[in-house]
Amino acid sequence: MAVKSVALVAHDNKKEELVQWVTDNNTRFSPLKLYATGTTGRLLGERLKRDDINVLLSGPLGGDQQIGAMIAEGKIDLLVFFWDPLEPQPHDPDIKALLRIAALWNIPVASNRATAEFILTSAYMTDDKHSPQRPDFSYYTQRKI
Ligand SMILES: O=C(CO)COP(=O)(O)O
Fold first, then answer.
1. Smallest Cα–Cα separation from 80: which of 125, 22, 123, 134?
2. Ligand 1: which residue has its CA nearest to atom 5?
3. Catalytic residue at 84?
4. Secondary structure (DSSP) of 99-138
5. Mean pLDDT for the chain?
6. Could you give the ipTM of this predicted complex?
7. What is the mean pLDDT of residues 119-142?
8. Catalytic-role residue among 12, 51, 52, 64
9. Out of 30, 81, 113, 133, which residue is the most buried by the measure of CB atoms under 10 Å away?
10. Superfamily (CATH) of domain 5-141
11. Tens digits of residue pLDDT in 94-122
């Protein structure tokens, strides 16, 4: 079975919610390959007692952009990003860029626990034959300039 790669990101006020949700669903998460921004990844590793989480840079230090680059390269199947709707973030352009690139490359994105639950329990999570269609941007890359 192809192992799905999941990127996990949460802003400070949402970190406990994300870590608790992942812990509550540990059985579903254990076969998945996990990537996370720096602080989110550290907290997840401590709580889940997993030392195989791929911890990237902290979001404001470039971690969001690292995940965005992985999405563009087709290396991430699902983005779970509990962003904070109540607090401005210093790296807002990076957050927008990450959400944009996820929309562009047609990967599923969960921004809250309710959506994350729907996705995690979807039959597609364990269906090898299904993967979202990767968009064809040849009309753009081949355009006449
Ligand atoms: O800021 C973030 C996402 O925008 C998350 O980064 P950390 O997990 O390092 O706190």
1. 22
2. 59
3. no
4. HHHHHHTT--EE-SHHHHHHHHTSGGGG-TT--PPPP--H
5. 97
6. 0.99
7. 94
8. 64
9. 81
10. Methylglyoxal synthase-like domain (3.40.50.1380)
11. 999 999 999 999 999 999 999 999 999 99
